[in-house]
Design goal:
Elements lengths: L1 H41 L4 E11 L2 E9 L5 E12 L2 E9 L5 E9 L12 H4 L28 H23 L3 E2 L1
Parallel strand pairs: 1-6
Antiparallel strand pairs: 1-2, 2-3, 3-4, 4-5
Length: 183
């Protein structure tokens, strides 16, 4: 009985290892394509290849991509993540121009309620951030004294989205100052 159990375990392990080896590269390629698509959605006018970087902010590593816009200027695509959404994690890609204006946003992970908070992934909501200048406008929902139109019946998600955008703007300023940490 022990030998049969070991043989079954060995066979299952071999099948699992084979499936992992066969699917690893396609999964990695799909993830890379999703990232590039998100970068192109938030900063459509860059040239060359994105240069990946990471910065420590508020106790966690935040990934970003430096994107050449002209010979002397760079825009950034920053992966911002907050856990203050209604149903948990909200992760977005935020494009920021060299001047510090938001050029676009794209949801990467959204676990919000379908039909309510999940509307943050719809163009009707995220379009309002294109050209948003945080130095001139307040990045909070109108209910809290800001300039952002919240999703009806999903104020918590709207606030979380604003928090993620604020995080990305803070990271942008740290990168531009040449800093590495904001703990």
């Amino acid at each position: 009985m022990t030998i049969c159990l070991l043989a079954v375990c060995f066979a299952c392990s071999a099948v699992l290892a084979t499936v992992y080896a066969v699917t690893l590269k396609p999964i990695q390629a799909a993830a890379a394509e999703k990232t590039v698509s998100a970068i192109r959605a938030v900063v459509p006018s860059f040239r060359g290849e994105p240069v990946k970087g990471s910065i420590r902010y508020d106790g966690k590593n935040i990934g970003y991509y430096a994107l050449e816009v002209t010979d002397s200027t760079r825009a950034y695509a920053i992966e911002s993540q907050v856990t203050s959404g209604f149903n948990g994690v909200l992760s977005i890609m935020v494009g920021i121009t060299p001047e510090g204006t938001i050029s676009g946003t794209s949801a990467l992970v959204c676990s919000e309620t379908p039909g309510l908070g999940a509307k943050c992934t719809e163009e009707a909501f995220y379009r309002q951030f294109v050209g948003f200048d945080p130095s001139r406008k307040v990045l909070k929902v109108r209910k809290d004294g800001g300039d952002v139109d919240a999703i009806t019946a999903a104020t918590i998600t709207s606030r979380a989205y604003c928090d993620a955008l604020t995080q990305a703007i803070d990271v942008f300023h740290i990168i531009n100052r040449g800093g590495q940490d904001n703990e």
